[in-house]
Amino acid sequence: MIIVREFDYKPSEHEAEKASGSYIMSLVAFVAGLPFPIINLIATSAFYLANRKGTYFVRWHCTQALLSQFSVLIMNSYGFWWTISIIFSSVQITNNYIAYIVTILVFNLLEFIATIYTAIKTGKGQHVSWWLYGDVTNLICKP
Question: Model pTM greater than 0.85?
Answer without folding.
Answer: no
